[in-house]
Amino acid sequence: MDHIATSNIPTDSYFFVTKQQTLNLYDHSFLLILQYYVNKDKIQEFVSMLASLTTFIFENYNIDFKKSEMGEDLNIILNLFLSLFEAEKNKNMYLKTGLNYSLIMFMCGVIEKFLRLIHKEVNKEIYMSNDWYSLGNLLDVGEKSMVELLGEHEIRVVSYYLSNGKNMKIGHNFRNNFAHYKNIKIKDIDYGVTLKTLNIFLTIVNTISIKVLEKQRTEEKTTAKDEKL
To answer: Which residues contact 118 (CB under 8 A, 6 or more apart)?
Structure first.
């Protein structure tokens, strides 16, 4: 059914039509839930939660949270959202569009920075040129350390939204399209894309947080077993 269905949606062997349709359904469902937490009354609590999770992850990977300036990055995201809610209240459509654009672009940069910092620490024994670091390389399913960190499916899905990876015909390519202001129109710079980008960041942070917790539990069980011996 997946491979014989006719559609104008570009496909490949991984992102066939029904898989892309499933991702769209997931988007609609999860964005409705996310809007409950992302509003003028709860956004500060939401960003504080992101900061706590990010700090927890960085501590595990021996990354200096303060030196990384990730706290400042999250405060910028918080203030951009607060300004966006104010623009919505004042029905300032042009300011809303500009703030959505700023949030999408800034969050794409923060996602790349977050992954880059962890990748550098995980691969600190290997020399990696700064020129190597890009979303395309970090989200390559051939990059073993990232696959171990996020899983192949999540890497493919994040790449589908942010960078298209090596297949430039599949996906949304948010980062490049917005960075170069191509393949998009004013109507495409909307709150839905802002929330999708935030959701991607949240998903990555949650996935790595769970990995860290699993690692800690395994180490605790090993320690407890050794103490019994």
So the answer is: 57, 61, 63, 149, 208
Please count the other Cβ atoms lying within 10 Å of the Cβ belonging to residue 164: 22
pLDDT in tens, 4-45: 444 577 888 888 889 889 998 988 888 888 999 999 999 999
Closest C-alpha among 81, 93, 72, 87 to residue 186:
93
Question: What pTM was computed for the model?
Answer: 0.91
Q: Which residues contact 148 (CB under 8 A, 6 or more apart)?
A: none
Question: CB of 71 within 8 A of CB of 78?
Answer: no
**Dist CA 157 CA 78 (whole Å):** 25
Q: What CA–CA distance (Å, rounded) separates 205 from 149?
A: 11
110: tokens are 């923060």
Average pLDDT of the chain to the nearest whole number: 91
